[in-house]
Amino acid sequence: MLRALLLAAPGAGKGTQGTRLAARYGVPHLATGDMLRAHVADQTELGREAQVYMDRGELVPDDLVVRLAVGRIGAPGAAAGFVLDGFPRTLAQAVNAYEWAKTRDRMFHAVIVLDVPETELVARLVERGRIAGRSDDTEDTIRNRLAVYRAETQPLMDFYDARQILFALDGTGTIDEVASRIEDALVGRGLAPLG
Ligand code: AMP
Q: Which residues are catalytic?
């Protein structure tokens, strides 16, 4: 059982670490960015609405993302928990998710922050854009996404810190090193992985 959230800037390793962490605890990895990209690829109405924001490196409106995320964390597949990646990203989303979870006995156990210096983030994202061809990994969009992260997402840290579930960890080093830091922090809180 683990209900965790990864809070980190674009390029800090949320996807990589989120996938690993979810497998380790036997829970689904739920990434709102992936959900939104799937809607864009399928050209759903939601996808068409979201794409405009995503292409500019801006956040998709709260109501749309909250509907998407809460639908998934409330689904039977997430009964044993989840690793949420990329949500919440604004204080309004966090408050909304908190109220939702409180009334359903599904409060988050841990919010993991991965700290990575901005110069390294830009380098990683430019490289990812080159390799994966992600349309929002261009240098201008990257700068905008980092600015959005600073302005909108960092205030969430205070919100979760006040609820005593925040773990701020060093996000630099190898994938294995970061994964061990995350697991150590969770185990220290009594949240043991499978096996
Ligand atoms: P990501 O893959 O997490 O970097 O997300 C890619 C893009 O999807 C972001 O730049 C946003 O435009 C959008 N997005 C993903 N999650 C959220 C969220 N929680 N709130 C608003 N927009 C989001």
A: 14, 89, 128, 134, 145
Question: Tokens representing 63?
Answer: 């109501």
Cα of 195 vs centre of ligand 1, distance in Å, is: 33
From residue 137, how far is each of 5, 42, 59, 130, 134 by CA, in Å? 23, 20, 15, 8, 5
172 alpha carbon – ligand 1 mean position (Å)? 22
- Could you tell me if the CB of 13 is within 6 A of ligand 1? no
Q: Which atom of ligand 1 is nearest to the CA of 53?
A: 12
Q: Which residue's alpha carbon is at the smallest distance from atom 1 of ligand 1?
A: 33
* Nearest of 56, 60, 62 to residue 144 by alpha carbon: 56
Full pLDDT tens readout for the chain, 195 residues = 999 999 999 999 999 999 999 999 999 999 999 999 999 999 999 999 999 999 998 999 999 999 999 999 999 999 999 999 999 999 999 999 999 999 998 999 999 999 999 999 999 998 988 888 888 888 889 999 999 999 988 789 999 999 999 999 999 999 999 999 999 999 999 999 997
The Cα–Cα gap between 30 and 83 comes to 6
